[in-house]
Amino acid sequence: MTGQSLITAVVVGVAVGTVGRVVACRGRGMPLWLPPAAGVAAAVLATVLSWTADPDQAGPTLLEIGLQLVSALAAVTTVAVTAGPSRAAARWQRSGRGR
Fold first, then answer.
1. Using CA atoms, how far apart are residues 37 and 76, in angstroms rounded to an integer?
2. Which pLDDT tens digit goes with each residue over 30-72?
3. Phi, psi (degrees; rounded to nearest 5) at 31
4. Any idea which UniProt keywords this protein has (predicted)?
5. Taking Cα atoms as reference points, which of 78, 92, 96 lies closest to residue 25?
6. Burial readout 27-50 (b: 16 or more C-beta within 10 A, e: otherwise)
7. Is the pLDDT at 88 greater than 90, yes or no?
8. Helix, coil or strand: residue 35
């Protein structure tokens, strides 16, 4: 695992997380940093898993970048679906009883 692999993982994770935030998480009450953080964490995990499978690789391979993309997409999608206020909490706030 090289520094270039880790930088690639961070770039892929931030890019996927930012696009996911703009596309899927608009209007949801979740922190701005959450989707990119999930994307970076998943992409770095994919890099570590790729490195454990082949520790002699010199830099990021096409397979490693593909694995980073897929794992970052899965993490950002999971965050977009599960994070934010629940429907019951939103209904409670709209009713005026939550204040």
1. 9
2. 788 999 999 999 999 999 998 888 878 787 888 889 999 999 9
3. -60, 150
4. Membrane, Transmembrane, Transmembrane helix
5. 78
6. ebeeeeebbbbbbbbbbbbbbeeb
7. no
8. helix
Query: Are residues 35 and 72 in contact, defined by beta-carbon separation less than 8 angstroms?
Result: no
Both tokens of 46, joined, read: 């994919």
Contact 93, 33 (CB under 8 A): no
Give CA–CA dist 56/69, Å, rounded. Answer: 22
Q: Distance of alpha carbon 54 from its chain centroid, rounded?
A: 24
pTM for the structure as a whole: 0.79
The identity of residue 27, as a single letter, is: G
Among 23-27, 74-78, 90-94, the minimum mean pLDDT is found in 90-94
At 58, which amino acid appears?
A: A
Let me know: does 58 contact 23? Beta carbons within 8 Å. Answer: no
